[in-house]
Design goal:
The protein has 147 residues and is α+β, with helices and mostly antiparallel strands. Helices cover 25% and strands 31% of the residues. The termini are far apart. It comes from Halosegnis marinus. This is Carboxypeptidase regulatory-like domain-containing protein.
């Protein structure tokens, strides 16, 4: 009997395939479970966006009102908005806090490069502390167009 086990090579052939199948099934199951667990922390959290007014401006125009809105379009008060030069340039970073109407006002002076026809100013939102808001996705940019 011991000799038949030594001469039987079938178990060696099937073992690696079974291990690979078990590993693939285990990793797939773990991935699904981790995705479910990470989704639980996001329950009840709402993404913020901004609505700059005007949406399009010329280089050198200074006043921009940015409304921070929740997913239903409702304004969000007491949020901090950060304006940064993206493909348009700003002199540093500008910050403003939204009022009770969800509006933050900036006095910025965007500029473009010598051969640049247009550019953008990017906005980032820091939600009010203790709120169920997040700002993970890209927000609406301010378009700067040479007139």
């Amino acid at each position: 009997m011991f000799e038949t086990l030594l001469s039987d090579e079938r178990a060696i052939e099937g073992l690696p395939v079974r291990l690979v199948v078990a590993l693939v099934v285990g990793v797939a199951s773990l991935s699904v479970m981790m995705n479910m667990l990470s989704g639980l922390s996001a329950v009840g959290v709402s993404e913020l966006d901004v609505r700059p007014q005007p949406e399009v401006t010329a280089p050198g125009d200074g006043s921009v009102a940015v409304t921070v809105v929740g997913p239903g379009g409702a304004p969000v008060s007491n949020a901090t908005v950060i304006a940064r030069g993206d493909s348009a340039r700003l002199d540093g970073v500008a910050t403003a806090r939204t009022n009770a109407s969800g509006v933050a006002t900036f006095d910025i002076d965007p500029s473009l490069g010598p051969n640049q026809a247009d550019g953008t100013v990017a906005f980032e939102v820091k939600p009010p502390s203790g709120s169920r808001y997040v700002d993970r996705r890209a927000n609406t940019d301010l378009l700067v167009v040479r007139g």
